[in-house]
Amino acid sequence: MSTATAPASAPATRKPATMAQALRQALRDALADDPHVHVMGEDVGTLGGVFRITDGLTKEFGPDRVTDTPLAEAGILGTAVGMAMYGLRPVVEMQFDAFAYPALEQLISHVARMRNRTRGAMPLPITIRIPYGGGIGGVEHHSDSSEAYYLHTPGLHVVTPATVADAYGLLRASIASDDPVVFLEPKRLYWSKADWSSDAPQSVPPLGRAVVRRTGRSATLITYGPSLPVCLEAAEAGRQEGWELEVVDLRSLVPFDDETVCASVRRTGRAVVVHESSGFGGAGAEIAARVTERCFHHLEAPVLRVAGFDIPYPPPMLERYHLPGVDRVLDAVARLQWEVN
Amino acid sequence: MARLSPPSPAAAGPAKRSARPAPKPPEAAGSGHTPPPGWHARIDPAPLLPEPEPYRLLGTPAARDLDPALLRRLYEELVRGRRYNRQATALTQQGRLAVYPSSTGQEACQVAAALALRPQDWLFPSYRDTLAVVARGVDPVQALTLLRGDWHTGYDPRARHVAPLCTPLATQLPHAVGLAHAARLAGDDTVALAMVGDGGTSEGDFHEALNFAAVWRAPVVFLIQNNGFAISVPLEKQTAAPSLAHKAVGYGMPGRLVDGNDAPAVHQVLTEAIERAAAGGGPTLVEAVTYRIDAHTNADDATRYRDAAEVEAWCAHDPIDLLERELRDRNLIDDAESKAVADGAEALAARLREEMNADPVLDPMELFDHVYAEQTTQLREQAAQLRAELDAEEDR
Ligand SMILES: Cc1ncc(C[n+]2csc(CCOP(=O)(O)OP(=O)(O)O)c2C)c(N)n1
Ligand SMILES: [Mg+2]
């Protein structure tokens, strides 16, 4: 399968594509390859979804395969459970992060545990796509980072792409997975571009593999989804301070790739976890603990976290004060006890 | 069995209530108003309305037409079911079952639901519906696996088309809708029947399931066992609706109201609903009016919230007595047959006692096997930890 580095580069057919286009292509290819795949959600049909990820799919595959459902998130996921019990492979779209909460009971009490409580007899291959995170000027309830709610629930995979190629590859892998996957799409990266072509053989990464996006030996920035571009920018800016920062993109929060993360931290001896969701009880807390438990004797400094504040997501006029940016990342790097050595 | 002919898909329920044309908009009715743009009458609610009183067969002239074989089968299952409930409750007192929500008093609903389904159909039970699960053919000991306190359902849902017993209230209803919808898309002749309690009808999932089912015209039947209580809370604190069956009308599906202690009546109403669903007529909501004779579970004290007089009144309307009276009146059963049925129920109870008294074989390592299709690194590490703890325990 894939290697631990970014996909091999460019055949001539590549041209600029957005993450939104790559996601749409992944859905289209999955629908075309497997008649069991069904796409369902609010406005995913005629409109193509509020972010247009499903644009044109209902026209191509018909309303029985790409379905505008009634407006009820628990009902959407609950009926998807029944469809999966009958052998289908539903791909559910939740319209926004904060509007996925009505489906939490179905997710936690059924989706996550049906395989287990039936001793493997009844797996639920459901993909739940959720646009998440801030930075798009959304009013309240449109910018939550909800990953911590999901990754705490055994039985779910939690996946989040940060690049155009991964958006395609990880979504294909998620739909192909026989386990339920919460697929978190960073809203503010929907319009990010990269040279990419769906015709070229894609490296479809297996779920649960992190990737080193930039190598360096001073410290490791551990991040995922919407914070990857921030970390890459910080790594570039850090050169002026004399730091060579390594950047690890987790891609999957569950399963967690301890191996790639710890190998990097053992090389660099320092680590900062970066995410935009609130820090307290967040993914960064788990990651920092895991790194400390496994790499303690290689660490030159405590593992630090750079996160959003522990406040309800602020309104668009103030969100820039909340979101971790390059400066906050570099401030944390500066606190990694360089002088002690 | 004399059954009302299956209604046409457009008709609401039994043939007696014919579909009427939708009412005319006010303008046409001569009011002189112009209705708002785009407004038009959608469907006529009248044919969707439930019967004014719970539908009855036993004790009515129509009972005479009922198929003797069906009546005998229902009777046998009711007697077995009651004995099963009593034995399971006894096993909780002996510490052999962690908990048992008895359906004593509700056996007619349990048995009729199981027997009305065809082999290709699916049953979606709640925690109180073990009898329906067993009457559908799931092994009576395996059906108790979760209630025994084990970690898995004990049976493969696909073997008998029986979903796992569901505890989070009403959450199994959208599953039934989704499964029925998928079957319909595949062109399969499959209906799903989902069971829920009166309290469960207040949950959001009840509403969402009914709405999806009606919009999708899914071949699904919802059976509410209105047993008067949600643990301690009586129906009047649960709903202000005229009846639970009336809720169907708001979704655009027919509601049926049936005496839940009249086994042939429940069987007939459910059979009609299943036939209607299979014929493409969409979902039906059935409210069966019944009573929970036992406490909520073995752990509950029902004297804290209800009178003995109320329980006595329902004991006088017992589902087994009602059916037995019919069988005796028509000479369809004699003492010897009645004893044979009782003996069969005793044998079932004896088997339950015997098998439940044996300690279950538990392998804690299995807890890591089915969380995911493939064990994660983390679960492998944790399994190794537990293995080491178990080994150390053995060495001690
Ligand atoms: C979502 C949810 N809330 C609360 C409970 C706890 N609970 C279990 S049974 C019950 C009462 C349900 O009453 P009803 O739906 O009438 O069914 P019955 O027990 O009478 O069969 C309650 C509150 C639960 N299982 N699920
Ligand atoms: Mg009740």
Automatic annotation (TrEMBL), chain A:
Q: Which cofactor does it need?
A: thiamine diphosphate
Q: Transketolase-like pyrimidine-binding domain: which residues?
A: 17-192
Tell me where the transmembrane regions lie.
none
Q: Which Gene3D superfamilies match?
A: 3.40.50.920, 3.40.50.970
Q: Which UniProt keywords apply?
A: Oxidoreductase
Q: Which domain of life is it from?
A: Bacteria
Q: Does the keyword Oxidoreductase apply?
A: yes
E.C. code: 1.2.4.4
**Has keyword tRNA processing?**
no
Task: Show the Pfam families listed in the entry.
Answer: Transket_pyr, Transketolase_C
**Top-tier EC class:** oxidoreductase
Its name, as the record gives it, is: 3-methyl-2-oxobutanoate dehydrogenase (2-methylpropanoyl-transferring)
Upper classification of the source organism reads: Bacteria, Bacillati, Actinomycetota, Actinomycetes, Kitasatosporales
From TrEMBL, chain B:
Tell whether Iron is among the UniProt keywords: no
Start and end residues of each Dehydrogenase E1 component domain? 85-347
Residue segments, region Disordered: 1-60
**Keywords (A to Z) from UniProt:** Oxidoreductase, Pyruvate, Thiamine pyrophosphate
Task: Give cofactor(s), names only.
Answer: thiamine diphosphate
What is the protein named?
A: Pyruvate dehydrogenase (Acetyl-transferring) E1 component subunit alpha
Source organism per entry reads: Streptantibioticus rubrisoli
Native organism taxonomy: Bacteria, Bacillati, Actinomycetota, Actinomycetes, Kitasatosporales
